[in-house]
Amino acid sequence: MAPRRSVDAPSERPQVLIVGAGPTGLVAAIELRRRGIECRLIERRSGPTDTSRAITIHARTMEILDDMGIAERFLHAGVHNEGYRFHFRGSDLEPRLDYTRLPTRFPFVCMFNQNETEKILRDHLERDLGLAIEWETELTDIAEEAGGALRATLRVGGAGGREESVSPEWTLACDGLHSPTREALGIKYEGMEYEGLVMQMMDCELRNFDGADTLLHYFISQDTFLMIGRLEGPNHRVLVSSQGDVDEIAKSDLITPIVSADLPEVELGEPVWKTTWEIWIRKAERYRQGRVFLCGEAGHIHSVAGGQGWNVSMQDAYNLVWKLALVIEGRAHESLLDSYEAEREPVSQQVIEGSSAIHEIIMSHGHGLEDRMALTQTEGWNDQAVARISGLSYNYRGIATLPPGCNTDAVPAIGDRVPDVEISPHLRLHHLLAHTRHTLLIVLDTVDPAPLDDARALCDDLLARYPATLRAELIAPRVPHPWPGILPIGDPDGRVASTLDTLPGGELILVRPDGYIGCRAALGAGASLAKHLESYLIAD
Ligand SMILES: Cc1cc2nc3c(=O)[nH]c(=O)nc-3n(C[C@H](O)[C@H](O)[C@H](O)COP(=O)(O)OP(=O)(O)OC[C@H]3O[C@@H](n4cnc5c(N)ncnc54)[C@H](O)[C@@H]3O)c2cc1C
Q: How much distance in Å is there from the Cα of 224 to the middle of ligand 1?
């Protein structure tokens, strides 16, 4: 881990100003502090919120929390849901989205309230990484000055508080749907409405609900939708939607009549939290303006169907921060930052499409149930939907320009998440990636030393050029001849080689700090991988 900087007084010129301490801002701050970058995290609220909001943590998010070293806290307290069951009124057909076969250490949806999620993230940030959130500190304006430098105006201490002017090197707008940062920069946020569609939800105890299973239940009728999911503790999340006027519905009770119609035997307890809202699709016209980046809901919002909101939001920050940290440290060219929008905009488009596909089945009120049910019977529906909602299938294929000689035929492809592999009961492939640098996997399927000599010379050279940015792992069926500086890992069954589908003789696979494959090349074609690294890293 990079050395920590002093975190005494808030700097007037922080390396990074993060606006908003929701889940996206917290993850951005954790990732920056893990790398020793000096940042300020400001939040206009006066303290933590206790509203539950997001309740679903998907598999890819769990893998990222694992990389941060805090997944066990979520695993310990959350409910592990095996998937979703769809109940169409008047039909015995009960299609399911089954998470249990997902190729991950976390083949489930972890049900965990957002206020508790934020509590764990805050605790890790403040206690382990030494950064205090600046509460009641609001960004009121931000502007680019000559040369692209930033000048931000903050109001500290709420209405009537003092004004502070800061000049951050970079700013991350993690300030949510209404993003004042995005507004101040005049970046458009456009999309579509689900005309007249209103959601109402509450968390409460349920009597006579057979909630013993670990599934999220969707009850679908022609004009209404009801979701029930078990939360940690005594409560369930009960969420409904229908057509109507949001202000009128907010004053009334939409939930009780829908629950009575779908599940007459169920009695609702007193809500611990209840809210009514409308949903939209929106996307910012760009995710970067000069030295400001939009992350999370500041950049995109979509239907709640499938519950991907905070998951995809925090993954924006996870994609951006390693790049930004390398640029700040002078270890990468600034052009690396262009890949943030190039990679994340297509993902948010896929999230919009994926959530809209589920939305069409569960919430296209007024449309016939037969047609909606038929959508769940199409070939590959389960696997495609689960891979998307879990976040495991989102990838950055075809975005980087690669030098000739790279292995562009294999799957997992360049741009894919590295799959996890159990090398032994005590070691998984993802364990080898749980640090903040790039990892060069040298995967051999032979102990023939001949091709190894060239590869060794190249890898030693790369490690000498990028000592703070790169580490190498040598994985082989049997431990090959000595390689000073690298502790070889025995993989007698060749599990890594077969999962990564490496070329005969072995392969060099570059894994980025966020766990995606940056490049791969045959042992004898390592020069192409070196060229790829040179395209964005700066040698020591
Ligand atoms: C009822 C409900 C249920 C949901 N269920 C799910 C679910 O099951 N699964 C899921 O994945 N998602 C769900 N979501 C969506 C999820 O809550 C959001 O996707 C997530 O909160 C987005 O995180 P964010 O950090 O980008 O934005 P936010 O959480 O909105 O955080 C932005 C922060 O910025 C602060 N801020 C704003 N302006 C300023 C300023 N000028 N200066 C300083 N600070 C500022 C705000 O106070 C806020 O704390 C749900 C949302 C709702 C409302």
A: 26
